[in-house]
Amino acid sequence: MISLLMQGRYDLFIMLLIAIVISLSFHEFGHAWTAKMFGDNTAERMGRLTINPVAHIDPMGLLMVALIGFGYAKPVPTNPRNFNSKQASLWISAAGPGMNLVLAFVCINLQVAALEFQIGGLSGAGAQFFLQYLAFINIILMLFNLIPIGPLDGHYILPYFLTKNHAYKYVQWNAQYGSMIMFGCIALSMVGVPIFSFLMGFASHISTFLMVV
After folding, report:
1. Dihedral, CA atoms, 46, 153, 150, 57, nearest 10 degrees?
2. Are 95 and 37 in contact (CB under 8 A)?
3. Which of 16, 67, 127, 212 lies 20 to 30 Å (CA to CA) from residue 61?
4. What is the number of H-type helices and E-type strands within the chain?
5. Virtual CA dihedral for 60, 64, 70, 75, nearest 10 degrees?
6. Contact predicate 66/2, CB 8 Å
7. Which helix (H) or strand (E) covers residue 57, if one does?
8. pLDDT higher than 80, residue 120
9. Tens digits of per-residue pLDDT, 154-187?
């Protein structure tokens, strides 16, 4: 991201930053809304049941996005004692990536519909470019968060698909090594090692299946 500023691509930098902030805000809203559906209003009481970026964006996480392209939002607080289902954690965790998938679906089809039916300013080059990148960023964010390591959403989801014994061992392993491995992968990616390159190809493949217009 910072390389765009160094190249004088201020317009592209601002557009990508806005797209990432929107994507992160919808992601966290998905967690908060689903938590409420499962009986926990902790996030709502703390003002997180909104798509307003001010409620979700972490200053350091946003700075990391601006500098290196990787960042994070403030985690949505939950209280498992309020959950009304044993599977609440699974669905709450999946709701963030799920919201990103929904947003990507809307953007892709809005982009196509705007061109086909010439919907006002949405058919212009700038709007089309923004919708395309917003969709792609949301797919990447969905896939990245489904990786079951560190604090990512995937580490809450995977245990539900393992036997009780394997789930326990995985939770212990991830608590000890997960974050270290994740940040190591990010560091390698920053210096040019294509650790997450598979996500790019997979994201492009998924986008073709989201088009229904």
Report:
1. -40
2. no
3. 127
4. 11, 0
5. 0
6. yes
7. none
8. no
9. 999 999 999 999 999 999 999 999 999 988 988 8
Quote the CA–CA distance of 128 and 61 in Å, as a whole number.
Answer: 27
Q: Is 9 helix (H, G, I), strand (E, B) or coil?
A: coil
Give dist(CA 157, CA 53) in Å, integer: 25
Provide the H-helix boundaries in 38-163. Answer: 42-45, 53-56, 59-68, 88-117, 125-145, 154-157
- Clarify whether 28 is annotated catalytic: yes
Q: Which amino acid is at 80?
A: P
Q: Quick check: helix, strand or coil at residue 28? A: helix
Contact (Cβ atoms closer than 8 angstroms) between residue 53 and residue 11: no
Query: Cβ neighbours of residue 111 under 8 Å, at least 6 residues apart?
Result: 122, 128, 131, 132, 135
Among the listed residues 28, 48, 55, 78, the single catalytic one is: 28
Q: Which two tokens stand for residue 211?
A: 């088009």
